[in-house]
Amino acid sequence: MTTVLAMLDRNTGQSPGDDRAAAAAAAEALGVDGVTAGIGTGPSGSVLAWGSGAVSAQVDHLQFTLGQGPGTDCAATGLPVLAPDLLAAESRWPAFSPAAGALGVRAVFAFPLSIGAMSVGTMLAHRAVQGPLADGAYTDALSLASAITVVLIERRSVRDGVQDGVVPAGWAAPETYRAQVHQATGMISVQLGVGLAEALVRLRAYSYGQDRPIADVAADVVARKLRFNES
Questions:
Q1: Which domain holds residue 193?
Q2: What H or E segment, with its residue span, contains residue 198?
Q3: β partners of residue 121
Q4: Top-confidence residue, 43 or 130
Q5: Which of 23, 72, 89, 97: disulfide with 51, CB 3.0–4.6 Å?
Q6: For 37-46, what is each residue's pLDDT tens digit?
Q7: Are residues 193 and 93 part of one domain?
Q8: How far is C-alpha 110 from the chain's CA centre?
Q9: Burial state string for 68-98 with b = 16 or more CB within 10 A and e = fewer than 16
Q10: What would the mean pLDDT of 143-165 be, rounded to a whole number?
Q11: Domain check: are 194 and 160 in the same one?
């Protein structure tokens, strides 16, 4: 893990290649298959800002779409959430656990990105094999989360880093940028005369019920192809 922390210390800019290398090294050191980190807390979710891997991005996307999962709970409480066996945790996350299982993910470990008592995001590690983290990996994960927090804060916040809808090159998964989802949430709020939190729940429920990516549904709402007061 010392090597990973040194890589992070050198990469305070926005180099996707360095981010991918550091994320791969971090995953190996923790004994997991992928590690990502996102900035943002609360019901609106986070935006991926560090890491790499298609499965990692899909796990994050599932949590955002369904509004549940270890990372979602971690963001809400500011405390680590460990799910070494997602099948056993299906009662806790009835939609997320089987959906993650379909991706081949059996264990997920979430750690807060914090500055003092303030949580600013979440680091997520996943693995295809169920079981707890190896001895010492929990402490290493906390150290990694602290280092990632410093790197991402130095790169500025996600919101400040976005200009004209373009995601900075250093972000791990540009496809997960969710400005359009938030725009659609606002439109649904107006259409139904409900608050933003309920509008986001309606959007998530529609996406889940139709088995469509939430980004696709949001795009239809923004393009005025779908109106929730007519559906």
A1: 178-222
A2: helix 196-210
A3: 39, 113
A4: 130
A5: 23
A6: 988 766 666 7
A7: no
A8: 10
A9: bbbbbbbbeeeebbbbbebeebeeebebbbe
A10: 67
A11: no
